[in-house]
Specification:
Shape: rod-shaped
Largest sheet: none
Number of helices: 6
Distance between the termini: 74 Å
Order of helices and strands: HHHHHH
Number of strands: 0
Radius of gyration: 30 Å
Structural class: mainly alpha
Strand content: under 5%
Helix content: over 70%
């Protein structure tokens, strides 16, 4: 028994439909997306709009388009689940994983670039730019949170140092307590 591969072979050449006039291709895409037309009706539509396409080329194009729409639908469902989890824990591992999943999808799309329209490339470029912005925001936020925690720890350490000095502890003990609060091996004196 052979194992079925999930790898989809890229077409060796672009579909004839992608070579049609952009207005005709847009009409074909709309008919496929809406699911309102059969392959024969799409061939007729292409002929009526002044293009030329065989039934087999339209059939292959429709099949590939439906597979892409199904992939998109599945990705949307998975994303909805992860977005729900992300809403419950926006700063956690799920948020970082979702960003990585989106990055993988973008780079997978780059692999199919020979079939992409200029509009697709524009959206892909914007997505990659948004990933970089999201990474920067995450780093900036993590840095700000760490700084806030360090500032709060410094305030607490300062208050504790004042309290323990009044209690008569040695400078060495006071410095050890301060260092432990700040989470450093040797604290500088305030």
């Amino acid at each position: 028994m052979t194992e079925q591969s999930t790898f989809k072979r890229k077409p060796s050449r672009p579909s004839l439909i992608t070579k049609l006039d952009p207005a005709i291709k847009a009409a074909v895409d709309t008919a496929v997306r809406e699911g309102r037309a059969t392959i024969d009706e799409i061939v007729l539509l292409v002929d009526q709009l002044g293009g030329e396409a065989s039934r087999s080329s339209v059939g292959r194009y429709v099949k590939n388009a439906r597979e892409r729409m199904e992939d998109y639908r599945q990705a949307t469902q998975v994303a909805a689940v992860w977005v729900d989890k992300l809403g419950k824990e926006p700063e956690g591992d799920v948020g970082r994983m979702l960003l990585e999943m989106l990055r993988v999808v973008a780079f997978k799309t780059i692999g199919e670039i020979d079939q992409a329209s200029p509009e697709d490339l524009m959206f892909l470029g914007k997505a990659i730019k948004d990933f970089a912005s999201a990474d920067k925001l995450a780093v900036d936020k993590a840095f700000a949170v760490r700084k806030l925690i360090a500032d709060e720890a410094a305030k607490v350490a300062s208050e504790v140092v004042k309290t323990v000095k009044k209690a008569g502890l040695t400078d060495e003990t006071v410095e050890h307590i301060r260092a432990r609060i700040l989470g450093i091996s040797e604290a500088k004196k305030a």
